[in-house]
Write a structure and sequence with these properties.
Number of strands: 0
Structural class: mainly alpha
Helix content: over 70%
Order of helices and strands: H
Radius of gyration: 35 Å
Shape: rod-shaped
Number of helices: 1
Largest sheet: none
Amino acid sequence: METASMPSLIKTLLWIIAIYYIVKFLARLFLPVVAKKVVEKATEQFQQQQQQQQQQTQQNKTDKPKEKKIVGDYIDFEEIK
């Protein structure tokens, strides 16, 4: 059974630190681009939903004209003192 030697431990720690800084650097480069794409896609979906909702509203207005129910005559009462 091998035991961990000091040079192996230092080498492993250096690799971990190097990988950490590489990931951090790449995140700084690519995270703004990814965030911009996500925002653009969300904005596009929102606009599509708005358009669909407007089209449905316009279709409902043109399809069904409101029917007026004739209930009876309107009588205006005045207060007598």
